[in-house]
Design goal:
Layout: E1 4-10, H1 18-26, E2 31-36, H2 46-54, E3 60-63, H3 73-85, E4 89-92, H4 105-138, H5 151-162, H6 167-174, H7 178-195
Parallel strand pairs: 1-2, 1-3, 3-4
């Protein structure tokens, strides 16, 4: 006999899962597993594992929203596929497109479309970030921490290097790391080559 099984999760111990539990029971859940203070990015949540052990082929897992079980799109897709392979139907109360039988060809196609959309979203974010960084560099802005190698320190490093001192000695004199000195000298060399 198939069951409707609920899973609820709250991110902090202070939050109450009662509203989620009530919604899941109203949707027909005969048993509700609840994780308190657990991140959705962690797959090893105690009650999530217990829920997985409890589910049987033909059961329906009902959740309030996909973010209750998965913290990333990739994790969500893997969980949906796994449930489908096990013959468990997934139903979200707030996302009607998730009320599909993922063990059928149509359900698997929907999961495939979700995977493509998730990859597209990641690629779009990556491309937008790359464009934003390129634009910032073109405006003379560089991300990250400010370099410890100020123009004065760089000029001193160049002079010391021309006098034959090692990068380690220069770093000690300037009170900075060797890698900072090496990068500053390399940038200075590139700038000189660009001018010539």
């Amino acid at each position: 006999m198939s069951n409707v099984v609920g899973y609820a999760r709250v991110s902090t111990r202070e939050q109450s899962p009662e509203a989620q539990e009530a919604e899941l029971r109203a949707a027909g859940a005969v048993r509700v597993f609840v994780d308190h203070g657990e991140s959705s990015r962690i797959a090893d949540r105690p009650q999530w594992k217990a829920c997985g052990d409890y589910l049987r082929p033909g059961d329906t897992l009902v959740i309030r929203a996909l973010d209750r079980i998965a913290g990333t799109e990739q994790m969500a897709i893997e969980l949906i596929r796994d449930l489908g392979r096990r013959g468990v139907r997934l139903r979200s109360l707030t996302e009607p497109f998730l009320d599909v039988d993922t063990s059928t060809p149509m359900g698997e196609a929907i999961v495939g479309i979700m995977a493509v959309l998730a990859q597209l979203r990641v690629a779009t974010i990556r491309e937008n970030t790359r464009r934003g960084l390129a634009h910032a560099r073109a405006q003379g802005r560089v991300g990250g921490r400010p370099s410890v190698m100020t123009p004065e320190r760089t000029a001193a490093a160049v002079r010391l290097r021309q006098d034959g001192h090692s990068i380690q000695h220069i770093a000690t004199v300037l009170g900075v790391g060797k890698s900072s000195v090496a990068r500053a000298l390399a940038r200075n060399e590139d700038d000189l080559n660009a001018v010539q």
